[in-house]
Design brief:
heterodimer; A: alpha/beta; Rossmann fold; six-stranded mixed β-sheet; three-stranded antiparallel β-sheet; B: mainly alpha; ABC transporter involved in vitamin B12 uptake, BtuC; 13 helices; globular
């Protein structure tokens, strides 16, 4: 496809979309990771990026965040270039920042979310403190707001980082395996946070291994260093596509043994 | 009272060179407290060390040519920063290797240049350890301006610096270019080294950059507190260092850095002992209810 053709299609598809990719290639300088990503995401919708390690989930997410340049094709984020409006896009990376020596309290970390909105020296306003308070409240970290970061457990820290991502009150929230270190209770808290953001009109892209979490999303993009499938979560997350994504589909029987499931995938009403 | 004053105050009150040294040292401490905090938090100690030594050939060349030493230092640190960037970009080597390589090369070049000078060891010692007892009022003024600029820059760029310490990706996605602010930080380290080397020397400016900030990091819960604490610790080290240099006839620059390092190890030990005591207290506190229940 010619560059002009791609641009025209990109323009027509991007209208009203939070995220729009046309024939997008993502990767690093010398290495193409995934080619030919075509998708659009409307406001208030959730998208799961599903795949194993090295499948291209994080690479695509970083490209949306503006941390990696697109290698080919077009990508529009909130109708402009990635990183065009930092205050409207929140990103939470896969690896926890190494905060061992940082003299920071939990609340200081969450407050950083508002820097994108206030710039270098703009004063923090009441609405900023309110957003910080609310995100910490939902994530259940208000109690530990003034505790030094290096005294918190891994799970507590993870919840603080999730609160940071949501405290930006961004239109597009990008999360790279946010629930990996969370226990069942914290996972529940995290799902409530997602629900609140979506009902406030935010769109969310989540890179995940968790099929259950992906099924709950409006859309799923299955990746295996190529696009395996894209569509509504409950439609594309079937045994065949999961097979091509992960190479194996496990299924627990009642007596606890694992069998490979091929015939039918997740039931979709 | 007067006996105490004659030990602790008189050396500074009655000697112009001692009061000048104290003022200059205090200004260096504040600049190093601000910049050193970010050096420690971002793990830039090695590059700080390299910059401190990278200025050596510049200073030495300026000395031989009869140019101001500060100009040579500025050129030296610029060459160091550009060199590290060049090697890191053009090869697959990590920046440690690039820094180490340039560090050794610049140090050797510096010594080679100084060896052309007639008063070889005297000049070398002066560059490495400074001449804090020979500081002029004009130099104090320069130090004051540099320290004020450093405080201003740190205040304006506090948010991107904080984000960089936390995660360069977060800085980038918050709209603050990680590359640009990293460069600003390196420049601040370089400027601190350039304006401070006259006072405490290239070798010891690095100690002042690191030791007080590392000490403050042991106890601080906020970055602003850490900056204030490391400046205060630096000032204490300058005062005690100068005093012991005067009373026991020791090299001034080395005494200051020695005191700063000693404070760090004292603080580390104090923290360790404190934790032990707290743990013992907790253990005995927990033991009591069990005992009473039985």
């Amino acid at each position: 496809m010619s560059a002009d053709g791609t641009a025209t299609i990109a323009k027509s598809r991007a209208e009203g979309k939070v995220l729009s990719a046309v024939q997008l290639t993502v990767g690093y300088q010398r290495e193409v990771v995934v080619e030919g990503i075509d998708l659009g995401l409307e406001p208030g919708k959730t998208l799961a990026l599903v795949g194993s390690n090295g499948s291209g989930k994080s690479t695509f997410l970083k490209t949306i965040a503006g941390l990696l340049p697109p290698l080919a094709g077009s990508l529009e984020v909130l109708g402009g270039k990635p990183l065009g409006s930092p205050a409207d896009v929140a990103y939470m990376g896969q690896f926890q920042p190494s905060t061992g020596t940082l003299p920071l309290r939990a609340i200081d970390v969450v407050r950083m979310a508002r820097f994108a909105r206030r710039g270098l020296v703009g004063r923090m306003r009441a609405e900023d403190e309110e957003a910080v308070r609310r995100a910490m409240d939902v994530m259940g970290v208000t109690q530990i707001a003034r505790a030094p970061l290096n005294t918190l457990s891994g799970g507590q820290r993870q919840r603080v980082f999730i609160a940071q991502a949501f405290a930006r009150e961004a239109k597009l929230i990008l999360l790279d395996e946010p629930a990996t270190n969370l226990d069942a209770h914290s996972r529940e808290t995290y799902r409530r946070m997602i629900g609140e953001a979506v009902s406030a009109g935010a769109s969310i892209v989540i890179a995940t291994h968790d099929i259950e979490e992906a099924t709950a999303c409006d859309y799923a993009l299955l990746l295996a260093r190529k696009v395996v499938a894209f569509g509504p979560g409950c439609k594309v997350l079937r045994a065949e596509t999961l097979m091509s994504t992960f190479g194996i589909v496990g299924h627990y029987t009642k007596d606890g043994t694992v069998v490979v499931e091929r015939e039918h995938g997740h039931d979709c009403e | 009272m007067t006996a105490l004053a004659s030990v602790f105050v008189t050396p500074f009150a009655s000697n112009g060179f001692m009061s000048n040294a104290l003022i200059a040292g205090m200004l260096v401490s504040i600049a190093c407290g601000i910049v050193g905090t970010f050096v420690v938090l971002r793990g830039l100690a090695f590059i700080g060390d390299a910059l401190a030594h990278g200025v050596l050939p510049g200073v030495a060349a300026a000395l031989l040519l009869g140019l101001p030493g500060m100009l040579g230092a500025a050129v030296g640190s610029l060459a160091m920063i550009l060199g590290i960037g060049f090697v890191t970009r053009k090869s697959n080597l990590s920046s440690d290797t690039a820094i180490g390589l340039l560090f050794v090369g610049m140090l050797a070049l510096g010594v080679a240049i100084v060896s052309r000078s007639r008063s070889f060891s005297g000049d070398l010692v002066r560059i490495l350890f400074g001449e804090i007892l020979g500081i002029s009022s004009a130099e104090i003024l320069g130090q004051l301006v540099a320290t004020a600029v450093m405080a201003l820059v740190a205040a304006i760029f506090y948010r991107p610096f904080l984000l960089l310490c936390f995660s360069p990706e977060q800085a980038e996605t918050s709209g603050f270019s990680a590359r640009r602010y990293h460069a600003v930080m390196l420049t601040m380290i370089a400027v601190t080294v350039v304006v401070s080397f006259r006072t405490v020397g290239t070798l010891l400016v690095f100690g002042m950059l690191l030791a007080p900030a590392a000490t403050a990091a042991l106890f601080s819960r906020k970055i602003v507190t850490m900056i204030a604490a490391s400046s205060a610790i630096g000032i204490a080290a300058v005062y005690l260092g100068l005093l012991s240099s005067y009373q026991f006839n020791l090299a001034a620059g080395a005494s200051i850095t020695l005191v700063a390092t000693l404070i760090f190890f004292l603080a580390l030990t104090a923290k360790h002992v404190y934790r032990r005591v707290v743990r013992l207290a907790e253990d005995s506190g927990q033991a009591k209810p069990e005992g009473s229940a039985a």
